[in-house]
Amino acid sequence: MDETSDINMVNTHIERMLSGSLFILVAMIISKIFAIFVSIIRARYLGPDGLGELSIILYLQSLGGLIAAFGIPMALTKYISQYNVSDKNKQYSLMISSTIVISIITIITSSILWILAPYMSVNIYKDPKLEFLFKINSIEILIATILAHGMGLLQGLQKISLLAKINIFNAVILFPFTILFIIW
Q: What pLDDT, in 10s, does the model give residues 57-113?
């Protein structure tokens, strides 16, 4: 390789990195704008008690999602990217096996949360109406973890513009559902 082709290759990598970064930045800004609107609506409609209940649910969702994901999406990104260049068969095998493992762990985690919902709401939080929210949360953990797995796959495959579009779509779609859920 000569010096000109090395420079062109570096420029191509820089352009690709900047382009991908711009897509991600725009998606994150749009997501955060929608999040601001959601937080304003939450505060107005839920009041202090409702926000307290929501914080319990969000904490439980965060913990449940962490357990359900089992760290797989982050590791998956690395290995999918690594095998993308070296071994497509290993990459495919990793995609299938990780999907099976994360599905099993997520179903178990969500089921445990569903089963424990009555106990947690009455005996731990002393608020029976939280049971319904815990059960909804267990379903949400299932969906969110599977989506995180898919995002890890896309990151590993370096589908940056597709990831950005999915993040924007997610923010736009979740906005009305969140509003309806809060008002309901």
A: 888 888 888 888 888 888 888 888 887 767 778 888 888 998 899 999 999 999 999
Count of Cβ atoms closer than 10 Å to residue 112 Cβ: 14
C-alpha span between 143 and 132 (Å, rounded): 17
Q: Which amino acid is at 167?
A: N
Q: What is the pTM of this model?
A: 0.73
Neighbours of 32 (CB within 10 A): 10
10 Å Cβ neighbour count for 20?
A: 16
- Residue range 36-54, pLDDT digits in tens: 888 888 888 888 888 888 8
How far does Cα 134 stand from its chain's mean position? 19
Residues, the chain: 184
CA–CA gap between residue 174 and residue 47 (Å, rounded): 21
Contact call for residues 163 and 24 (beta carbons, < 8 A): yes
Residue appearing with tokens 């107005």? 44
Helices and strands per DSSP (H, E), number in the chain: 5, 0
